[in-house]
C-alpha cells in the first residue's frame, strides 16, 4: 500500500482533491499496481513549513518548492524513475509548485525544475508496512 506525502505551499481543497486524484493515477501506473489498489493509496498534504528537519538538512542546498515523499515496498529503479517523471508532470501543472512571476515570464526566464521538486523514497518491507516503519532508500530531484 503506497503512502504519499506532499510537502508544499498551501493549496485550496479543490486543488488538493485534483492533485490527489492525479497522484493516485500516476502511482498506479508507475508502480504497476492493479486498479483495485486505488483505494489503498494514501495521499497526505503537509504545508512546507511543517516538513521534518531531516528534509531541511537533506535538501537545504537546493531548497525545493515541494517535496514528494513516497513509502512503498518493492521499489525498483525503474518504478522510481517512472513515478518521478509522472509526478513531476502533475506537480508542475499544479498550484503546489510556484510558477514564474510576470516579470520572469516576460524575460523568458524558466525555473530550474531540479530545484522545484524534491523526491524522498522509502522502502518498506511487508512486515514493516503493518507496523508503519520504513527505512530510507533514495532521495532524487526532478530532472
Give your account of this protein's structure:
It is a single chain. The chain has 143 residues and is an alpha/beta fold. It has one domain: Macrophage Migration Inhibitory Factor (2-Layer Sandwich). It has six helices and five strands. It has helices at residues 13-30, 53-59, 77-92, 102-106, 113-116, 126-131; strands at residues 3-8, 42-47, 66-72, 117-123, 135-141. The protein has a five-stranded mixed beta sheet with strand order 2-1-3-4-5. Strand 1 (3-8), helix 1 (13-30) and strand 2 form a beta-alpha-beta unit. Helix 1 (13-30) runs antiparallel to helix 3 (77-92).
CATH topology title: Macrophage Migration Inhibitory Factor
Tally of contiguous helical segments: 6
* C-alpha geometry: globular
Describe the main β-sheet briefly: 5 strands, mixed
Task: Look at the structure and name the CATH superfamily.
Answer: Macrophage Migration Inhibitory Factor
Low-confidence stretches: 56-61, 127-143
**What is the highest CATH level, the class?**
Alpha Beta
What count of structural domains?
1
Order of strands across the biggest sheet?
A: 2-1-3-4-5
CA-to-CA gap between the ends? 26 Å
**CATH architectural group:** 2-Layer Sandwich
Quick gist of this model?
Helices cover 39% and strands 23% of the residues. With 143 residues, it is an alpha/beta fold.
What is this structure's SSE topology?
Blueprint: E1 3-8, H1 13-30, E2 42-47, H2 53-59, E3 66-72, H3 77-92, H4 102-106, H5 113-116, E4 117-123, H6 126-131, E5 135-141
Parallel strand pairs: 1-2, 3-4
Antiparallel strand pairs: 1-3, 4-5
Helix pairs in contact: 1-3
Amino acid at each position: 500500500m503506497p503512502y504519499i506525502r506532499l510537502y508544499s505551499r498551501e493549496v485550496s481543497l479543490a486543488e488538493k482533491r485534483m492533485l490527489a486524484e492525479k497522484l493516485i493515477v500516476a502511482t498506479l501506473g508507475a508502480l504497476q499496481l492493479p486498479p483495485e489498489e486505488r483505494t489503498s493509496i494514501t495521499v497526505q498534504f503537509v504545508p512546507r513549513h511543517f516538513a521534518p528537519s531531516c528534509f531541511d538538512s537533506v535538501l537545504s542546498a537546493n531548497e525545493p518548492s515541494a517535496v514528494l515523499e513516497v513509502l512503498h515496498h518493492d521499489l525498483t529503479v525503474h518504478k522510481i524513475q517512472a513515478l518521478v517523471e509522472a509526478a513531476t508532470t502533475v506537480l508542475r501543472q499544479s498550484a503546489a509548485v510556484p510558477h514564474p512571476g510576470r516579470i520572469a515570464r516576460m524575460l523568458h526566464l524558466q525555473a530550474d525544475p531540479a530545484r522545484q521538486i524534491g523526491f524522498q523514497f522509502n522502502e518498506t518491507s511487508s512486515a514493516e508496512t503493518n507496523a508503519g516503519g520504513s527505512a530510507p532508500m533514495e532521495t532524487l530531484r526532478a530532472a
